[in-house]
Design goal:
The complex is a heterotrimer of chains A (about 450), B (about 160) and C (about 220). Chain A has about 450 residues and is mainly alpha-helical. Chain A has two domains: about 70 residues, no CATH class; about 325 residues, Cytochrome-c3 Hydrogenase, chain B (Orthogonal Bundle), CATH 1.10.645.10. Chain A is built from 20 helices and eight strands. Chain A has a three-stranded antiparallel β-sheet with strand order 1-2-3. In chain A, a hairpin with a 2-residue loop joins β4 and β5. Chain B has three helices and seven strands, in the order αββαββββαβ. Chain C has a domain of about 140 residues: Rossmann fold (3-Layer(aba) Sandwich), CATH 3.40.50.12280. A four-stranded parallel β-sheet of chain C has the order 1-2-3-4. In chain C, α2 runs antiparallel to α6 and α3 packs across α6. Classes of the chains: A mainly alpha (about 450), B alpha/beta (about 160), C alpha/beta (about 220).
Chain lengths: ~450, ~160, ~220
C-alpha cells in the first residue's frame, strides 16, 4: 500500500490508478464500481488516450450532454457514520446514482479467527460491529454451542437476554444521538450519551469493560452478575422510560424533524426483502419479521414484548420503530430482572467450561481440566452451523465451520449493516443530497460490521 | 427426502447431489451448473425462500471442488431455513451469479470474489469490495499468510 | 467487578504515584530554572492559547470513536479543556485523534487529511489499534499509525476510557506548553526535592553496602 511523499498525492487519484491497474492486469474492462472510483466515464486504453483537456472542454460544450457532477462523500466525513465513501453523481441537487465504496475499516477478523482458539475468537468477533458487541458474541457462542451440543442453564440464558437487551438499548441510543447530531438536533446527542454512560457503567460492572466486552462464554456467561448489579440496573430501568419520553418530546412532534424525515428513503417491502434488508428498516415497512419472535432463541419465548412495526417505511417510521424498540427492551429487561432464575451461570461440561476456581484447591481433576482448557483449549466436533440473532440493525448471523480441531475452520459473520447498506443506492436515488444524510442515518450502518 | 429436496427435484430434476440433516439444519448440495435454477425454484416455490440471509465460502484445498459455497435461505412466512451447498472448483473457480434471483447477493458475491477468488458469471459489478482494488491475492484462502508483523512473543497464536 | 462505587459514596482520589506520567525534568529545564531564565511572555501566551484551544478533527474510525464521542458527552466534558468543537474540515482543526483501526485502504486517506491540516498540528493516537495494530496483527491493518504520521501522544486501551482520552489531551496540552513554562514552579521544586532525596538514599545505600563489605572482609 503506497503511502506517499508529503502533500503531493491525492488518495482519490491513487484509488483510481489502482482500479485501472487491476483491470489492466486482468485484461478486462472496468466494472461500474471501479469506473466510479476512477471517476472515469467509459474507459478503454484508446479512449483514455483521447481524453485530453481539449477534448473534455469540447465535449462539455456540445449541446445535449449533461455530465453528472460527482461529489465524493467520505471516507472522512462527519455524517457518514464511520468510514463510508459515497461517490455521488448529482444532477443539480438531485442524486442520480450512488456508488458506495467500503473496505476502509477492513480488519481481517475472519481470517484471524482461523488462527485463534475457540475462546480467543470471541475477543476478535466482539470488535466487529462495535456498537453491538454482545450480539456478535451471542451469535458466535450459540453457534459454537450448537456444534458442541451443549445445554445452556436457564440462568445463563436469561442473563444473556438481559445483557443483550441492554446492548440493544445502548446501540439505539447511539443511533438516536448521532442521527440527530447529523440533522442538527445536538441536544438529543447529549441526552442519549448521558444515558449511555450510565448503561456502560452497568456493562463495566458485569464484564469489566465499557465496550468490546467479552462476557458471554461458550457454555453460558463467563461470570455471574456482581452484587449490587440488580439494584443499579433496576434504578436505571426506573429512570429510562421518562428519559425516552424526553427524547420523544424533542423529536416526535417536532415539525423540523418531521419535515426532514417524512417520506425519505422509502422502498417497498418486497424490494427490501429482495435486497436482504432486515431489522428496523424492514419492520418500518410493515413486515413484522423479528427473529426473537419467529425463531426464538435463548429463552426469548418466555418474555412478553411487542414487535414494533411501521407503515410507510420512511425514515420517520424507522425512528418510531427504534424508539418503540427501546421501550420494549426496557420492558424485557424488567421481566428478566423480576424472574431471573437461580442456578449456575455456565454449563457443566468440564471439557469446555472452566471449573469454579475454588475447586482447583482440592480437586486434581479440576486442575487438569483447567490447565488443558487454558493452554490448549477444547476441540469442537466437525460440522457447520448457521445461527442468527436479532441484532439492533437486523439479522446478525454466524456461520461456523469446524473440522474437529481447536480452532474455527471458518468463521463468517453475516452482518446486518453490510447487507442493509446495499439498499442505500435504491433508497436515495432521486432524492436530494440532504436527504441522503437522513437515509444513511435511518439505515444505521456500523462500518465495523460492514467491513469486518 | 425432505420437502425442500422434493420441491427442487420437481422444478430442476437431477440438480441435487446429496442432502444432509445435521444438528437440525438442512444442507442441500446442488450441482454447480444448476444453482440459478434451484434458486429460482426455491424462491418461487410454496415455501417462498425470499430472503437470502448469507452467501459465503469455505476453502478446502484438499477437496477436488476446493471452494465450498454456502447459500443460506430464509423463508419469512414460515421461518424455515435451508442451506444450499455448491462446490466451485479448484482451478479458475466459477459459479453463475444469483443476483437475478436475489439482488442482495450482489455484495455477498463481491466479498466471496474478493476473499476467495471465486468468479461469478453474470454479476453486474464483480470487483473487490473490502480490499484496495489492486490488491493481489485472495486473503481467506488457506494458503494466504496471515500477514502482519513479527512480534517478540514466541507462542503468540 | 465492583470498581464503580455505589451512588452516594464519597469520592476517593488515588495519589499520583507513577512518576512517568509527569516525565522527568529535562536537563535544559533544570538549567533554565536554576539560572532563573524565563521564557518570553509572548511564547508563554502563545503556548497557553494553543494548548487551551486544541480543536480536534473528526477522524473517528471504529470503536474508539464512540469513546471519543463519550469524551465529548456531558460526563467527561472535553469542552472544558478547550477541545470545544470537533471540526469536520481538517483545514480548521489543530488535532487529529486517530481513534480506531487504520486499514491499509484508509492509510493514504489519513496521510492526506494530515497533510491538509495547517501548522501547528498534533496527533493523538487513540487506542491500541492506532498505536500498534492492537489485537489485529494481520494483512489488513496498519500496525501502528506512526508508520505514516508522526504521533505526539499515544493513548493505550481497547478502547481507552474517555477519561483516558482526556488524560491524553491533557498530556498533549502540557507538551504544547513545552516552549512556555511546562510546569508550575511548585512542581519543579517538588521534583528537584525528590531528586535530592533519591540521591541521598542512593548514597546511604552505597555507604551501607560498603560498610557490610568492610565488615565481611574484616571478619
Amino acid at each position: 500500500m503506497t503511502t506517499t511523499e508529503q502533500g503531493s498525492s491525492f488518495p482519490l487519484a491513487i484509488e483510481g490508478r489502482e482500479a485501472l491497474e487491476a483491470a489492466a492486469r486482468e485484461g478486462r474492462a472496468l466494472t461500474p464500481t471501479e469506473r466510479a472510483v476512477a471517476m472515469v466515464e467509459a474507459y478503454t486504453a484508446e479512449e483514455a488516450a483521447e481524453r485530453t483537456l481539449e477534448n473534455e472542454m469540447l465535449m462539455d460544450q456540445r449541446a445535449g450532454t449533461r455530465k453528472p457532477m460527482i461529489i465524493n462523500l467520505g471516507p472522512q466525513h462527519p455524517s457518514t457514520h464511520g468510514v463510508l465513501r459515497l461517490i455521488t453523481e448529482m444532477d443539480g441537487e438531485v442524486i442520480a446514482n450512488i456508488t458506495p465504496v467500503i473496505g476502509y475499516l477492513h480488519t481481517g477478523i475472519e481470517k484471524q479467527c482461523e488462527n485463534k482458539t475457540w475462546w480467543q475468537a470471541i475477543t476478535l468477533v466482539t470488535r466487529m460491529d462495535y456498537l453491538s458487541p454482545f450480539f456478535n458474541i451471542h451469535a458466535y457462542t450459540m453457534a459454537a454451542e450448537k456444534l458442541l451440543g451443549l445445554e445452556i442453564p436457564p440462568r445463563a440464558e436469561w442473563l444473556r437476554v438481559l445483557i443483550s437487551e441492554l446492548n440493544r438499548l445502548t446501540s439505539h441510543l447511539v443511533w438516536l444521538g448521532t442521527s440527530s447530531l447529523d440533522l442538527g438536533a445536538i441536544t438529543v446527542f447529549f441526552y442519549t450519551f448521558r444515558e449511555r454512560d450510565a448503561a456502560l457503567d452497568l456493562f463495566e460492572m458485569v464484564s469489566g469493560e465499557r465496550m468490546n466486552n467479552r462476557y458471554f462464554q461458550v457454555g453460558g456467561c463467563a461470570e455471574d452478575i456482581p452484587p449490587g448489579f440488580v439494584e443499579r440496573l433496576s434504578d436505571f430501568l426506573d429512570r429510562m422510560p421518562a428519559r425516552i419520553d424526553e427524547y420523544e418530546s424533542l423529536l416526535t412532534n417536532n415539525p423540523i424533524w418531521i419535515d426532514r424525515t417524512r417520506g425519505i428513503g422509502v422502498l417497498p417491502a418486497g424490494e427490501l426483502i429482495a435486497m436482504g434488508v432486515t431489522g428496523p428498516p424492514l419492520r418500518a415497512a410493515g413486515v413484522p419479521h423479528d427473529l426473537r419472535k419467529s425463531q426464538p432463541y435463548s429463552g426469548y419465548e418466555h418474555f412478553q414484548f411487542d414487535v414494533a412495526t411501521g407503515t410507510h417505511g420512511d425514515a420517520y417510521d424507522r425512528y418510531l420503530v427504534r424508539v418503540r424498540e427501546m421501550r420494549e427492551s426496557v420492558k424485557i429487561m424488567r421481566q428478566c430482572l423480576d424472574g431471573l432464575p437461580e442456578g449456575p451461570w455456565i454449563a457443566d461440561d468440564r471439557k469446555v467450561v472452566l471449573p469454579p476456581r475454588a475447586e482447583l484447591a482440592y480437586s486434581m481433576e479440576a486442575l487438569i481440566h483447567h490447565f488443558k482448557l487454558v493452554s490448549e483449549g477444547f476441540t469442537v466436533p466437525e460440522g457447520e452451523v448457521y445461527v442468527s440473532v436479532e441484532g439492533p440493525r437486523g439479522e446478525m448471523g454466524c456461520y461456523l465451520v469446524s473440522d474437529g480441531g481447536p480452532k474455527p475452520y471458518r468463521c463468517h459473520m453475516r452482518d446486518p449493516s453490510f447487507v442493509n447498506l446495499q439498499a442505500l443506492t435504491h433508497m436515495a436515488k432521486g432524492s436530494y443530497l440532504a436527504d441522503l444524510i437522513v437515509t444513511i442515518g435511518s439505515l444505521d450502518p456500523v462500518m465495523g460490521g460492514v467491513d469486518r | 427426502m425432505s420437502d425442500v429436496v422434493a420441491q427442487i427435484e420437481a422444478a430442476a430434476p437431477g440438480a441435487v447431489v446429496q442432502e444432509i440433516l445435521h444438528l437440525g439444519e438442512l444442507t442441500v448440495e446442488v450441482e454447480r451448473t444448476r444453482i440459478v435454477e434451484v434458486a429460482r425454484a426455491l424462491r418461487d416455490g410454496p415455501s417462498a425462500y425470499v430472503l437470502l440471509s448469507d452467501l459465503t465460502c469455505a476453502d478446502y484445498p484438499d477437496e477436488p471442488g476446493r471452494f465450498r459455497l454456502a447459500y443460506h435461505l430464509t423463508s419469512i412466512q414460515s421461518g424455515g431455513r435451508v442451506r444450499l451447498r455448491v462446490w466451485a472448483g479448484g482451478v479458475d473457480p466459477e459459479v453463475e451469479s444469483v443476483t437475478s434471483v436475489w439482488p442482495t447477493a450482489n455484495w455477498h458475491e463481491r466479498e466471496v470474489f474478493d476473499m476467495f477468488g471465486v468468479r461469478f458469471t453474470g454479476h453486474p459489478d464483480l470487483c473487490r469490495i473490502l480490499l484496495p482494488l489492486d490488491w493481489e491475492g485472495h486473503p481467506l484462502r488457506r494458503d494466504y499468510p496471515i500477514g502482519g508483523e513479527t512480534v517478540q512473543f514466541t507462542d503468540a497464536v | 467487578m465492583a470498581l464503580i462505587p455505589p451512588p452516594g459514596a464519597p469520592v476517593q482520589r488515588a495519589p499520583r504515584t507513577d512518576p512517568r506520567i509527569d516525565w522527568d525534568l529535562r536537563d535544559d529545564e533544570v538549567r533554565d530554572f536554576e539560572k532563573g531564565v524565563l521564557t518570553t511572555t509572548v511564547d508563554k501566551a502563545l503556548a497557553w492559547a494553543r494548548s487551551s484551544s486544541v480543536w480536534p478533527a473528526t477522524f473517528g474510525l471504529a470503536c474508539c470513536a464512540i469513546e471519543s464521542m463519550h469524551a465529548g458527552a456531558p460526563r467527561i466534558d472535553l469542552a472544558r479543556f478547550g477541545a470545544e468543537v470537533f471540526r469536520a474540515s481538517p483545514r480548521q482543526a489543530d488535532l487529529i485523534i486517530v481513534s480506531g483501526r487504520v486499514a491499509q485502504k484508509m492509510a493514504p486517506v489519513l496521510r492526506h487529511i494530515y497533510d491538509q491540516m495547517l501548522e501547528p498540528k498534533w496527533i493523538i493516537s487513540m487506542g491500541a489499534c492506532a498505536s500498534s495494530g492492537g489485537v489485529f496483527n494481520n494483512y489488513a491493518l496498519l500496525q501502528g499509525v506512526d508508520k505514516i504520521v508522526p504521533v505526539d501522544v499515544y493513548v493505550p486501551g481497547c478502547p481507552p476510557r474517555p477519561e483516558g482520552l482526556m488524560e491524553g489531551i491533557n498530556v498533549l496540552q502540557r507538551k504544547i506548553g513545552a516552549h512556555g513554562q511546562e510546569r508550575s514552579t511548585a512542581m519543579i521544586h517538588e521534583r528537584l526535592d525528590e531528586r535530592r532525596r533519591w540521591a541521598a538514599e542512593r548514597e546511604q545505600e552505597a555507604a551501607l553496602q560498603a560498610a557490610t563489605r568492610n565488615t565481611a572482609a574484616s571478619t
